[in-house]
Specification:
Length: about 260
Amino acid sequence: AAAAGGFIVLAIFGYEIFNFTIGVDEERDLSHSYGTTTDIERVIFKEGRYGQYLYRLLFTYDRSTNPYFDVFFGAVLLFLAALMTAICLEKYYGRPFSNASVTIFIGAFVSLPYIVPEWFCYNGMNVCFSAALLLCALSAYLITFSGHRASRYSLCTLMLVLAFSMSENFLAYFIALACSCVFFSIFGNENSGIKEFFGRAVPLISVFGAGFVIYMLMRAVIGTNSYAVNTYFHWGTQSFSEIAHNLKAFMIKLFDSSVPG
């Protein structure tokens, strides 16, 4: 199943791996428009994306970029993330998945519309994006199946903080993953009840809560100036009528005026 899943990843992203492709924002690296480390801190660190900042500090400190490395290493991490997620869900389910099921899951996972656009637009994000997916799966697995010692909770919390710091999207992603884990646990065990539900849900909720609080405290202490959030998110700044009007306008645009205006 793992070999077949790896072949699927290669089939989907092979052209991107073996061909020189410049993605969105990589022109900034090539043109040295970041300038100094201070400029990178302003652009990425102040966005609250500390994981991305750390990755760039380690691998693009000289203001260079290597699309081959980003795409190849990102593809390896994406495959590992898909495989680890399948293992995690299988463990919660309590019964082994068939090889065919794991292969289909890996293929579906790596070709999700949520993932593919990121890959073909932002090469520089591939490693960070895939690493965050892997960290979320590892955290969900370890928090339940590696004992309940404080060290395990600490490790899982730190992994989630790092995942969240790659992109705010992974806050929502881990919630979806945690719900999937609890769902698989309940429906995989015919004798499951309230005790089983809380036994699976509480560790996931607690580690998410700890990771979320730490990440938000980091943002509060360090301060953020997020272009993405300020531009695309308006939580708490718009009235219900404005939200409804904007949603209607978006639907009309999405369906090319097929929705009555």
